[in-house]
Write a structure and sequence with these properties.
Blueprint: E1 8-11, E2 17-19, E3 22-24, E4 26-30, H1 37-58, E5 60-64, H2 71-79, E6 105-106, E7 116-119, E8 131-138, E9 142-143, E10 146-150, H3 151-161, H4 163-172, E11 174-180, H5 194-197, H6 203-213, E12 216-219, E13 225-228, E14 236-239, E15 242-244, H7 249-255, E16 267-269, H8 277-289, E17 291-294, E18 301-305, E19 309-313, E20 316-317, E21 321-327
Parallel strand pairs: 4-5
Antiparallel strand pairs: 1-4, 2-3, 5-18, 6-21, 7-19, 8-18, 8-21, 9-20, 10-17, 10-19, 11-13, 11-16, 12-13, 14-15
Helix pairs in contact: 3-4
Length: 331
């Protein structure tokens, strides 16, 4: 691909996978030279239809070597795609995040020792983004990769190896239960308060939002809120003949653990029946086999189709600054 003042070529990175004779992720590298910011944005505007199609086809695109250094650079990069913004404050994300700009926020404020398991962003809510952008402002001294997993490939594997489990996922759906604190808890990967999540200053205002979303709920003596979603899908048809394992099963079953939450109580099938722990261990194992870890370099941007690819976060040492931006569903 090329714009008038910029050249971009396909590249390879260590650990890159291949599915259906296509690389995962697709890596696009800006050729060395004195590249101006305006040239980058011109190239995106001219290429965005093709990039949009490729993000769905390949699942994820890693942009490398572009002249990006700050959150403002990242904001302008994302804005050039002309996708509708999905602000953090309007989301039902469990994660504590800090806004940098109207579009850009920290990916997750959880401590470095906390593993964030594979998941589709906000698949545990009725409202989720269509695409995600990640930007590496500063890679960790060690670790801190963002794992990516093609859930359409995972779905096909599971359908072959665990057909009854997948049949239950498709027919029953899922219920997620989460205990939210009264105030943000940055020590947890799922520590966002109910006030922030539901943009509510009072219990009554929170209940009105919960009711509108179809949730059930219970107020706890310590001011926390236990909420349970309506039945949500575990499998998503993204196009004819292509389904994805679209959920937060792995994250909820293996990762929703803090002082308030017990993973064994976090998720059931839509009819209330329990998940088999052995099946979930196998799901996580196969997903790990299909996972590519982004080896972050400063300035990297990843565009992820949230309906096709799961993501997470590895533990790390040192300072890691990875920022995010979400795209609304009508994109």
């Amino acid at each position: 691909m090329s714009g008038r003042l910029i050249e971009v070529a396909s590249a390879a990175v260590d650990g890159q996978q291949s599915h259906d004779e296509k690389p995962f992720p697709l890596v696009l590298e800006c050729c060395p030279g004195n590249v101006e910011q305006n040239s980058v944005h011109q190239w995106i505007r001219e290429s965005r239809s093709d990039l949009d199609l490729k993000s769905r086809e390949y699942g994820a695109i890693l942009f490398r070597g572009f002249p990006l250094a700050t959150d403002r650079d990242f904001d302008r990069f994302v804005t050039s795609f002309d996708y509708p913004n999905f602000p953090y404050q309007e989301s039902l994300s469990n994660a504590v995040r800090v806004n940098r700009t109207e579009r850009v926020f920290t990916a997750n404020e959880a401590p470095p020792h906390v593993t964030i398991c594979l998941h589709h962003e906000m698949a545990q809510t009725p409202i989720y983004p269509s695409r995600l952008f990640f930007f590496c402002e500063q890679p960790a001294e060690r670790g801190g990769a963002t794992p990516l997993c093609r859930s359409d490939i995972l779905f096909e594997r599971l359908k072959l190896e665990f057909p009854e489990f997948i049949a239950d996922c498709e027919t029953k759906g899922l219920l997620y239960t989460n205990v939210m604190p009264a105030e943000n808890d940055p020590t947890s990967g799922m520590g966002r308060s109910w006030q922030s999540t539901f943009r509510a200053k009072t219990c009554q205002a929170a209940e009105e939002r919960l009711q509108g979303l179809g949730y059930s709920w219970e107020w706890l003596p310590n001011g926390c809120l236990r909420s349970t979603t309506p039945v949500l899908p575990a499998v998503l048809a993204v196009e004819p003949g292509r389904k994805t394992f679209f959920n937060q099963l792995i994250a909820a079953f293996h990762g929703w653990k803090d002082s308030r939450n017990d993973p064994t109580k976090a998720i059931t099938f839509g009819d209330g029946s329990p998940l088999n722990s052995q099946s979930m261990d196998e799901v996580a194992r196969i997903a790990e086999e299909l996972t590519f870890d982004i080896p972050w370099q400063a300035g990297d941007v990843a565009l992820v189709d949230n309906r096709v690819v799961m993501h997470g976060r590895r533990t790390f040492n040192g300072t890691r600054k990875v920022l995010a931006s979400l795209v609304a569903m009508d994109a």
